[in-house]
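To fix ideas, we now present one chain and its tokenised fold:
***
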Amino acid sequence: MAKQILLVEDDEFLHELYTELLTTAGYTVTGVASGTKAYEKMKENTWDLVLLDVMLPELNGFQIMDKLVAEGVLMKCDVVYLTNLDSTDSDLRNLEKAKDHWTKSDMSPPEFVAKVKSMF
């Protein structure tokens, strides 16, 4: 059975690109573009991997993770932050709460797929 990936990305171009790359690589992708929708989907906790953009409308990726932790939701899967943030000290502390963080501007499409494959 194909691995289930929740893709949280509000940039339409990147959302479509990542969805196409992951689908072609054999993954089942569910995509959302807002923090509120991501929070609801992550609470379902049925994913094999969550790729979570940090900068989102409504709730950002850090706020989503903080809310889930505060509610006692233990993610059964790895969560990877997708970001282009310059890493301030507070950003680094927040980024360390996830399994990993990837800088979107530093990844070519083949590198992105290779990084996802390395998570399984």
